[in-house]
């Protein structure tokens, strides 16, 4: 989704916001959709050049890092041979997750990805690789390097081989 979203739906003319500030569906700036750097440009705060404070609401990056940690850790603890119920629970979780994710632009793109690439849950290995590919899709969209998915378990489950 376009990060310079203007989402106002009322009759008022849209307000101007600095580049990079993503608006929520209510037409107001969406903090969990916006990087701290962009967010700070619209405040009078002296924090502009610094890193986001640890005890403030998350920006899109902090939220993303924490969420990937949770999702890859779910993959790391998912059974190698899950029961049909465990597979169904994981599918439900991922679909609900994609609807509830607190950055709406991220959520809409992730829902579109799920429609294209159905979540694979038949084993830990299968889900871990599916998730790694899904994360790489976001990396590509953001212009970040992609991750070698043959290493997902070392990164998230076993630790790096010496
Ligand atoms: P992150 O991408 O957060 O990754 C954390 C760590 O995971 C990395 O340090 C690396 O060790 C490891 N890693 C990286 N890639 C992989 C991989 N493929 N498989 C396994 N491990 C990996 N941000 C936006 O600005 N726009 C969006 O549309 C957007 N959509 C998102 C959708 C989802 C579902 C999620 C969870 C996050 C989204 N984000 C989005 C946030 C974005 O993905 C990053 O989390 C954020 O930019 C911080 O990036 P980072 O460089 O710190 O590393």
UniProtKB/TrEMBL annotation:
UniProt keyword Cell division present: no
Compositionally biased residues, Low complexity: 1-11
Key words of the record: Disulfide bond, FAD, Flavoprotein, Oxidoreductase
Pfam families: Evr1_Alr (PF04777)
Known EC number: 1.8.3.2
Every ERV/ALR sulfhydryl oxidase domain range: 56-156
Swiss-Prot/TrEMBL cofactor(s): FAD
Broad EC category: oxidoreductase
Top-level taxon of origin: Eukaryota
Recorded catalytic activity of this chain's protein: 2 R'C(R)SH + O2 = R'C(R)S-S(R)CR' + H2O2
Name the UniProt record assigns to this protein: Sulfhydryl oxidase
């Amino acid at each position: 989704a376009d990060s310079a979203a203007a989402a106002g739906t009322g009759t008022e003319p849209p307000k101007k916001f600095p580049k990079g500030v993503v608006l929520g569906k209510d037409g107001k700036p969406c903090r969990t959709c916006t990087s701290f750097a962009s967010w700070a440009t619209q405040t009078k705060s002296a924090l502009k050049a610094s890193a986001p404070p640890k005890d403030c609401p998350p920006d899109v990056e902090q939220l993303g890092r924490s969420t990937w940690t949770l999702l890859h850790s779910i993959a790391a603890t998912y059974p190698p041979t899950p029961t049909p119920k465990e597979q169904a629970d994981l599918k439900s979780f991922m679909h609900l997750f994609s609807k509830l994710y607190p950055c709406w632009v991220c959520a809409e793109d992730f829902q579109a990805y799920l429609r294209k690439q159905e979540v694979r849950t038949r084993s830990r290995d299968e889900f871990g690789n599916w998730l790694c590919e899904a994360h790489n899709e976001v990396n590509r969209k953001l212009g970040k390097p992609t991750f070698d998915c043959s290493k997902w378990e070392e990164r998230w489950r076993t630790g790096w081989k010496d």
